[in-house]
Amino acid sequence: MPEKYRFLTGYMKTFKGGVSLPEHKDLTVDKKIRPIPPPFEMILPLGQHTGAPNKPLVNPGDSVKVGQCIGKAEAFISAPLHSPVSGTVKAIKDIFNPIYGKKPAIIIENNGKDTPVSFIKREDPESLPKEELIAIIKDAGLVGLGGAAFPTHVKMNIPKGKTIDTLIVNGAECEPYLTCDHRLMVERTGEILKGVYLVASILNAKNIFLAIEENKLSAIFAMEKATVQMKKEFHGKQIQIIVLKTKYPQGGEKQLIKAVLKREVPPGKLPLDVGVVVQNAGTCFAIYEAVYKGKPLIERCVTFTGKCLREPGNFTVKIGTPLKDVVGHCGGFTETPAKIIAGGPIMGIAQYSLDIPIIKGITGIVFISKKDLEIYEELPCIRCGKCVDICPVNLMPTDIGRMVKYSRWHYLDELHPSDCMECGACAYICPSRVPLVQYIKLAKIKESERK
Amino acid sequence: MENNFYISQGPHQFTNTSVQKMMKDVIIALAPAIFASIYFFRIRAVILFAVSIVSCMAFEAIFQLFMKRKITILDGSAVVTGMLLAMIMPPSLPIWTCIVGSLVAIGLAKQLFGGLGANIFNPALLGRAFLMAAFPTYMTRWNMPFTLDAVTGATPLGLVKFTQNLNINYQELFIGRVSGSLGETSALALIIGGIYLLIKKTIDWCIPLAYIATVFVISSVTNMIAPDTYAGAVFHVLAGGLLIGAIFMATDPVTSPVTKTGRWVFGIGCGLITMIIRLWGGLPEGVMYSILLMNAVTPLLNRLTRPRRYGT
Ligand code: SF4
Ligand code: SF4
Question: Mind listing the pLDDT tens digit for each residue in A99-108?
Fold first, then answer.
């Protein structure tokens, strides 16, 4: 939607602080989601989520089917892993995982037949008891698809004594370049809403908000139309669409809760401590697929973008597809990228090679050209206070950086580096290019050592 | 394909402001005032600006060499200090005194404290304070615009303070055709520079607003109570070093607080001290001491105004 119509969105909600970024979303925002067929060799890391890694359930030489569970989740905070293709297990070996470092992975040779295990389709899942729904979600290996990859069933299991009054569906997608959630909200509107209803009925939430940044007008309109058509009510109320100001990190859980509800999550607490659960819009789509179609998490929507790609776009990719096989489907490179980022360009992780697989937590891959590469030298902090002004959780990044630099560890106690969610907004805004996030990470380590 | 991709920690994208750009903006913003100064004080202004800028850059390089730091005279901060220092000097100042001022500003106030970002006091102001203490006669000899010899032309603030002459020509005061330090006389030029900096977001608006508003309020009140003794608010805002101080000196990021609340307190404090000195102190002008004093309490302000911990 062009810039000039943005005033139509009227009143917008937001949080205090944050930064506005160049969006770069126009590269892919109009690109329809297309599937990328799985290549011959798939790489499935055992542990693609926050929490305990998987235990392999197959051995080299075994044949597997599409959707077959190949990695067991033994701990509570974990999620099982399924084969996205049919074929033969070739090996289990260490590979570079794009997020979690060198980790074991199952290598599967795709036989191209796509023989599935039988998926159980469900007609009216909302009538199922909530324990069963959570079990379905758990067995489908669902994790948060917004990037954090936190096992979804854990979030849905509300501990005794806590009540949830609000569900916020996160459609902010505040990182530059990424458009996969935007496209999902436009193209899979009904499915996402069905997923949202499922989550809402599991949580028994009174208020349901769908929060979308104002730069995604087409998603806002699509969602509004669909909610009106579906006419579904919870506790006498429909889903409310919330228009958020376009600002980074609007999609951070704490910022979203602040923007929508004006509630602040206390230090060290979770959203559920203030009666809220936040689910990403893409996750809601995956929940729909898992529950209605019985399909485990074997594929996700990913944005492949950057000026080096001939045809950047949004794609449904099978989990485990090596990055190098994706590039061909994007028309190849117009020039060799200088940097490859898994995730968005603010919090994303730079990659060593194209051999990494796409895993559950990857929202996008940004290929940065040599011209756009930003390399800076750290200059002395000039105490401009910009980082203090914009920190969404009211920290003083400049002071934390200073104390770390001069090893004044005991001063850190009063500066609370552990509250930092490493959003990187302070480092983005710093005119001296002080690597504040790195200093704060160090401060966190020291803080926990001192305790 | 070879695996030679550039690796770094996030963020991978940054704002386009940088220290150099901020310094460049300040230099651009100072330009109108410098031109006004050259127009009013002719060759004296040209000489003093040149001497001050060159000596500040030279001392920066010498000290950095001596203290085995990286030479950074091209980052613009020494140029800005040189410009600001000249702007707050009387036009008749001997050249060597100006060089001494640069030495104190760069050497003592900046490099001995640790260089850019580590100083507590605004370098240009500390340089001037030193000259005031060491060479008071040179520092209080004023000439009227367009005259090259130092005939004593008291500054408007001096006139008001010591002769109770309240016949103020506001137009001259606004344009800057009055006696005073090189770059402080033209309110118009300073305001143009200030607007540029605010538009470019190079300075935060809290400090200038708090500072000027405080001066305005206090002078309005005192003028209401004793209109024959005290000049009005507009006079106090336009006269002397208030505008250059509020726009260019008090907003120096390094020596002002990093928190928003701190900056409000800082601005109000500057305004209070300025007015106390102007109205009841022994000097006609108090901008310099007010900012230096508030510089000194800035570390304290940073501690006291730490933002509330999120979620508590
Ligand atoms: S200190 Fe942490 S939370 Fe605050 S802006 Fe920086 S990275 Fe974000
Ligand atoms: S933004 Fe950078 S230069 Fe400014 S106070 Fe923070 S760390 Fe220092």
Answer: 888 889 999 9
Residue B57: its pLDDT value, please? 96
pTM for the complete prediction? Answer: 0.92
Please, are residues A89 and A64 in contact by the beta-carbon 8 Å criterion?
Answer: yes
Distances (CA, A) of A425 to A348, A392, B47: 13, 8, 45
Q: Is the pLDDT at A3 greater than 50, yes or no?
A: no
How many domains in chain A? 3
- Nearest Cα residue in chain A from B298: A383
Query: Terminal CA-to-CA distance of chain A, rounded, Å?
Result: 51
Pocket of ligand 1 contains residue A421 by CB under 6 Å: yes
Residue A171 is part of a domain; what is its CATH number?
A: 3.40.50.11540
- C-alpha span between B215 and B197 (Å, rounded): 21
Ligand 1 and A396: CB distance under 6 A: no
CB-CB: which of B12, B256, B257 is closest to A339? B12
CB pairs under 8 A between A and B: 154
Which is the closest atom of ligand 1 to the Cα of A400? Answer: 1
CA distance A195 to A285: 6
| Residue A283 contacts residue A253 (beta carbons within 8 Å) | no
Inter-chain contact A375–B8, Cβ cutoff 8 Å? yes
On whether residue A320 sits in a domain, the answer given is no
Under DSSP, the state recorded for A163 is -
A240 pairs with which residues across the strands? A209
From CA B245, how far away is CA B88, in angstroms rounded? 9
Interaxial angle between packed helices B123-134 and B77-87, expressed in degrees from 0 to 180 and rounded to the nearest 10: 40
Pair of tokens at residue A293? 């179609």
Q: How many CA atoms, within 13 angstroms, populate the side-chain half-sphere of residue B192?
A: 15
Q: Which sequence spans correspond to the domains of chain B?
A: 19-137, 153-180+202-304
Q: Which domain holds residue A72?
A: 41-110
From the number of C-beta atoms within 10 Å of its C-beta (0-12, 13-18, 19+), residue A449 rates as exposed
**How far is ligand 2, taken at its centre, from the CA of residue A398, in Å?**
5
Give CA separation, A227 vs A230, B26, B82, B269, in Å: 5, 52, 64, 55
pLDDT of residue B187: 94
| Residues A283 and A144 both lie in one domain | yes
Report CB contact under 8 Å: A353, B3: yes
CA A424–ligand 1 middle distance (angstroms)? 6
**In-domain check, residue A67:** yes
When CB atoms are compared, the residue of B10, B17, B263 closest to A431 is B17
Say which of A347, A366, A429 has its CB closest to residue B15.
Answer: A429
How many whole angstroms from A434 Cα to the centroid of ligand 2?
7
